Amino acid sequence: MLKLYLAGPDVFRPDAFEQGERLKVLCAEFGVQGLYPLDHAVPDGIVEPAAQARWIYQANLELIRQADAVLANLNPFRGAEPDSGTAFELGFAAALGKPLFGYLDEGGNCIERLPCEWQGQEPGRDRDGNQVEAFGLPLNLMLGVPAKIAVGGPREALELLREEMLS
User: Fold this and answer.
1) Are the C-beta atoms of 141 and 135 separated by less than 8 Å?
2) Domain segments of the chain: what residues?
3) How far apart are CA 157 and CA 90, in angstroms?
4) What does pTM read for this prediction?
5) Alpha-carbon gap, residue 93 to 47, rounded angstroms
6) Share of the chain above pLDDT 90, in %
């Protein structure tokens, strides 16, 4: 059975554990095993916050190594871009040669997706005058090129994964 690491800021939701279960049930509908970061808890003996962070980091990297591919929630998180931890996980998985799949609630390219409060006066520039990528991709090219991105949710991304990997 194909193993799929479930990346994204869902782990920060108030219902993070329930969301993980919903994602894993959805994966099972597609004949895929979902590996969710919260499947394993920090051992009780690790109490210092920095040690807990290191444990979580290593545990997540191990889950990515075990996975055949990654499915990522790439919706904006705490700003206009995807969660930085999710971006790192995708980069790590890409370095391992794993296929990447993601989903966004809404379509459009970077310039279209950038919220008005982040846009500058000059087209293609943000409020600080920095260039906004104009490659027609929904995200920064370092995510938009290697990842197959579905518009919708995890179901749509799993349908894309099925077309790419399971047919």
Assistant:
1) yes
2) 2-166
3) 15
4) 0.94
5) 29
6) 83
